[in-house]
Every structure is written in C-alpha cells, then in structure tokens.
User: Fold MoxR family ATPase from Haloarcula nitratireducens.
Amino acid sequence: MTDPADLANDIAAEVSTVLVGMDDQVERLTIALLTRGHILLEGVPGVAKTTLANTFARASGLTYNRVQMTPDVLPADITGTSVYREEIGEFELRTGPVFANVVVADEINRATPKTQSALLEAMAERHVTIDGETLDLPDPFLVVATQNPIEMEGTFELPEAQRDRFQQKLTITLPNTDNERELLERFNNAPTMGPEDVTAVVSQADIQAARDVVTQVHIEDVVQDYILEIVAATRDHADVAHGASPRGSLALLQTAKARAAIRGRDYVISDDVKQMIEPVLRHRLVLTTDADLSDVSAADIIDDLRTSVTPPEGKVTDANLLTEKPGESGREDSN
Assistant:
C-alpha cells in the first residue's frame, strides 16, 4: 500500500517547483483528494488559484479541465450534450469538461444558479445524465471552484445548501515579501515556467492505495466526541443562525483522518481535528443579522470555537494517543 505521507510529500515537492508559499493549500488539496472531497477556493485575482489546481493535477497524474463560468454558460456546456452529425445521420454524444479528474470552475459565482446546480449535482452524484444516458464521472473526481471576494457585481452567490457540498473552503492571500521575491527570481530565470513543466510523481493506483490507508486510520471515541462538541457549538453559538450539518461532522472526521495519515500516523489526535475546523466549517456557518451588522466573521466564530470547546487530552488513560509526539510531523501549520 502507498504511504499517504510519501504521496503528500512527493506532490508537495513537485508543486513547489512552480509555486511558492502554498504548502498549506497543497496539503489540503491532497486531503480532499484522499477523502473524495471538493474545494471552494477564494482569493483576489492574480494569486494563482487556477495555476494551483492545474499544477496539483499534473503532479498527481490526473487529467485537468477548466471552465470559465459566465452568465451565458449552460448546464450542457458543463456536462455535455448530443450533437447531430449530418454526414452519418445520427446523434453523437459529446461529453463536457466535467469529465476530468480535476475540474476547475473558475469564478463559479458568475454562473447562473441553474448551471451551478448542474455542477454541484455532478459533485454529489459523481455521474451525469445526458439525453437519458447516465455516465459515470472519472475517479478520482475533484472539483475546485474559485471565487473572487472583491468583485461581486453581476455574480450569483452560492446558496448555503450548495456551499455545504464543498468539503473545504481555502483562501489564498497575497504572498509575503520573501515569497514574492523568490517568485520574481524564479520567473526572471524561467519566464515561461508553468504547470506544464510539472511531472506526475504519483499514479492513480497510488492515490487509491493511499485512500485505503486513510480509511483504516483509528480515531478514539473521545476524539469523535470532540468533533461532535465542535459541530454542536456551531449550532448553539449566539452569532450563528444555522450551524454545521451532519455533512460537516463527517467532513471533519474524514479530513482529520487524512491529515493524520499524511503525517505518518495511523490514529487521529485532537490537533488533526483542530487544524481542520476552519477549512471545513467556515463556509457552512450562516451568521445572524446582528452578527453581520457587527462585522462578526465566520473566522471570528471559528477562533471562539477553538478556545471554548475543550480538546480531550487527559480524558483517557493513554493520553499519548491524543497528542503529537516530537518528530512525527515535518510540516508546520499556519493556522
């Protein structure tokens, strides 16, 4: 079986030959890949959202398609349609860009709700129906939908129920000075460098084997209770009108197991859960009107949850199962 830690390290190292300062995002894309999740990726223009997805796909040995979402994009432009070929007198099925391992829906909030729903249905069902014929989508299948947070004119905001279908919401911020300097030096020496320069370092068989390892990761009952307490706290929080659903609980469980596996452990610790709270839950929270008027953000509530919900260290006899030992992780979390 493929070690998820080796797989994650190989992908991260290859992606870093093109991109700078995106270790956290690459790790969380890997977590989504190993747990069959989808990603909502937010950032201002020019921070390499699409390049990240393309580079990640190539390093993972996966096929890649990108769709520029605009108001005139129709569901058939995503899924495909039957086209009449006059020369043979028959209809020919032409599949759409959704038939790829990694699909980028660029600026998803610029598509109409009908088109958004068609894509999100494909995400949930992992198949599409074209003129009565049901076709399975490729496996692995990962949708990365991007959003621009600063230009909302002419957009159709994703409804809460549709945001909930994304396992994680990631943000890409502007790079710090050191990372941007390294980026300038790198592209000064190789101006045409891009995702096409990345080599596949894992295979689809490796990904499936790593997925199997993730499913076998052990999680103590007290750590599961910690997940349940966090999700319950989102529902009871004074600034939250609607908290996370059971889908959010499952996503927190699955991503924590994947995070443990890519850190070389076969068991989940509370820090695995804590580090995944923000990407898994922040887009699932519907704030109250008073919270919106008071400029309370989902990030503020996540910070409150981290401090108000006590992790389970010390609640079981073997506390070593709940804390990370020195040397188990070669990564640093920014959260």
The chain is about 40% helix and 15% strand.
